[in-house]
UniProtKB/TrEMBL annotation:
<dbReference type="InterPro" id="IPR050202">
    <property type="entry name" value="Cyt/Deoxycyt_deaminase"/>
</dbReference>
<dbReference type="GO" id="GO:0004126">
    <property type="term" value="F:cytidine deaminase activity"/>
</dbReference>
<dbReference type="GO" id="GO:0008270">
    <property type="term" value="F:zinc ion binding"/>
</dbReference>
<dbReference type="InterPro" id="IPR016193">
    <property type="entry name" value="Cytidine_deaminase-like"/>
</dbReference>
<dbReference type="InterPro" id="IPR016192">
    <property type="entry name" value="APOBEC/CMP_deaminase_Zn-bd"/>
</dbReference>
<keyword id="KW-0479">Metal-binding</keyword>
<dbReference type="GO" id="GO:0055086">
    <property type="term" value="P:nucleobase-containing small molecule metabolic process"/>
</dbReference>
<dbReference type="InterPro" id="IPR002125">
    <property type="entry name" value="CMP_dCMP_dom"/>
</dbReference>
<dbReference type="GO" id="GO:0072527">
    <property type="term" value="P:pyrimidine-containing compound metabolic process"/>
</dbReference>
<keyword id="KW-0378">Hydrolase</keyword>
<protein>
    <submittedName>
        <fullName>Cytidine deaminase</fullName>
    </submittedName>
</protein>
<feature type="domain" description="CMP/dCMP-type deaminase">
    <location>
        <begin position="1"/>
        <end position="123"/>
    </location>
</feature>
<comment type="similarity">
    <text>Belongs to the cytidine and deoxycytidylate deaminase family.</text>
</comment>
<dbReference type="GO" id="GO:0042802">
    <property type="term" value="F:identical protein binding"/>
</dbReference>
<dbReference type="Pfam" id="PF00383">
    <property type="entry name" value="dCMP_cyt_deam_1"/>
</dbReference>
<dbReference type="GO" id="GO:0005829">
    <property type="term" value="C:cytosol"/>
</dbReference>
<keyword id="KW-0862">Zinc</keyword>
Length: 123
């Protein structure tokens, strides 16, 4: 997953008001397929995070469930999904979100779960 996310990462200026690729993500679906995505940042805040972009690709391809997610930040380190991404993941897998694995640090092989990051869903 890490290598696939790394392969799509690469900052690029698309226009004066839109850039992409600073952050890359990968999700592992329940069928074993890996989907990737990059962040798309806009001046008007209508962009999207890399994690949701990868999940949108998964959904577009007909899958609805995943078991792992990772993001590679622009500095090359891993990080936890933002609040909007966590909320999207929880709504996507309401009954099973707590067991989704989140890679926190590739070098140290540190993994947590979405349940630990998002223990109490608001709905």
């Amino acid at each position: 997953m890490y290598e696939e996310a790394k392969s799509v990462q690469g900052f690029r200026q698309i226009s004066d008001h839109l850039e992409a690729g600073g952050v890359a993500a990968a999700v592992l679906s329940n069928t074993g397929k890996i989907y990737t995505g990059v962040c798309i940042d806009t001046a008007c805040t209508l962009g999207v995070c890399a994690e949701r972009n990868a999940l949108f690709s998964m959904i577009t391809c007909g899958e609805n469930h995943f078991k792992r997610v990772l993001a590679i930040m622009s500095n090359g380190k891993n990080g936890a999904p933002c609040g909007a991404c966590r909320e999207f993941m929880v709504q996507l897998m309401e009954k099973d979100y707590k067991n989704i694995e989140v890679l926190m640090d590739y070098d140290r092989k540190e993994i947590t779960t979405l349940g630990k990051l998002t223990p109490d869903w608001w709905l």
